[in-house]
Design goal:
- The radius of gyration is 17 Å and the shape is flat.
- It is built from 4 helices and no strands.
- By secondary structure, it is mainly α.
- Helix content is 58%, strand content 0%.
Length: 130
């Protein structure tokens, strides 16, 4: 049965969030508790504005992609320095990333669609410090 947020693929939201939780656990195992500064603020507003315009242009021209959407959300987060608004923007980043993964999984589930794999613990050892 499809639940809200399943993006037309039963159980997909739970699967993706389980993969995200496993990745977060792998990051903690690799890097431990991290206390880094946000590194965000109004200095990035012009970049966020350009990304918003790129989304609007791509949508108007019928060439909007997940990359456009996620890039805009990330740059909006980068431009935010208020902790509450930054949190909201980061939730939007996470939600778009989750929906993009669901779109990949949905394509893979369709006849002849490309195959995708789930994230696994240990995937955090890619050198990122998320």
């Amino acid at each position: 049965m499809t639940q809200p947020g399943d993006y037309g693929l039963p159980g997909s939201l739970n699967r993706v969030l389980t993969d995200v939780a496993a990745e977060r656990a792998a990051q903690d195992a690799m890097w431990g508790l991290q206390e880094n500064p946000d590194g965000t603020g109004p200095a990035y507003t012009s970049e966020a504005d350009l990304a918003k315009q790129a989304v609007a242009d791509a949508a108007a021209e019928g060439r909007l992609t997940w990359r456009h959407i996620l890039h805009e959300e990330v740059l909006e987060a980068f431009a935010e320095d208020d902790p509450d608004r930054l949190r909201c923007e980061l939730i939007q980043v996470a939600a778009v990333a989750v929906k993009w993964v669901q779109a990949l999984d949905r394509r893979a589930a369709s006849p002849g669609g490309p195959r995708t794999t789930s994230a696994r613990p240990g995937a955090a050892d890619t050198g990122t410090t998320a």
